[in-house]
Amino acid sequence: MLEAVSLSCRRGQRRVFSDLSVKLEAGQCCLVSGPNGSGKTSLLRILANIAQADAGQLLWHERPVQRNDSDYRRNLMYGGHAPGLNANLSVQENLDSLLLQDRVAWERQDYDQALRAGGLLAYRRVPLRQLSAGQRRRVFLVRLSLSNRPLWILDEQLTALDSAGQHFLGELIAQHLQRQGAVILTSHQALPWKLDVQHLDLGSAC
Ligand SMILES: Nc1ncnc2c1ncn2[C@@H]1O[C@H](COP(=O)(O)OP(=O)(O)OP(=O)(O)O)[C@@H](O)[C@H]1O
Questions:
Q1: What is the CATH number of the domain that holds 33?
Q2: Which among 62, 77, 120, 182 is least buried, having the fewest CB atoms inside 10 angstroms?
Q3: From ligand 1's centre to the CA of 205, what distance in Å?
Q4: Is the ipTM of this complex over 0.90?
Q5: How far is the CA of 15 from the centre of ligand 1 (A)?
């Protein structure tokens, strides 16, 4: 499905990683670990086609991914450190505009069910600025649950989630893998789910 071949990344004068390869097939999950500054976010941004590697190649179903490759991007959901939501809009308004952007044709009952599963049904008309950090993260998870994209690239999405929120994310990932989606994620904590994952350790920050 996704293959990264011999990627190198420099930030400023620093070599963050080099000759890094990773392969992700349908139904597989990869956990990228490493200490602060080891390049986890840099790698995920390259895989999400938000940033460019200094060397190496990205292949999607064996097709080379180009710079700003909109065809490739339509196949993935990227969750970064900040949920990227509009603080002045309600939960529902945020979701509606994001799902439009994601080109998701949702059914009302699936939408309500996703809000319920994310613990946000009672907050649908509440502006984002009145939500906690964990609740904002859950808005992204609801969006993720309604998306129909095969590749999920999730950077530190456990941050701020309570145990119910972590359980919700674990269920979403398990269902996604069952449907032959693929997931690559980072976490500073051990994953709180029973999942078969491959590990990519970026080792010590250089
Ligand atoms: N905007 C930037 N300009 C220059 N260097 C940067 C920039 N952002 C990050 N870096 C450097 O790139 C390296 C990798 O950063 P990155 O955010 O990918 O690490 P990380 O493993 O995700 O860290 P963390 O665990 O703290 O989230 C770090 O050494 C950092 O100093």
A1: 3.40.50.300
A2: 62
A3: 9
A4: yes
A5: 11
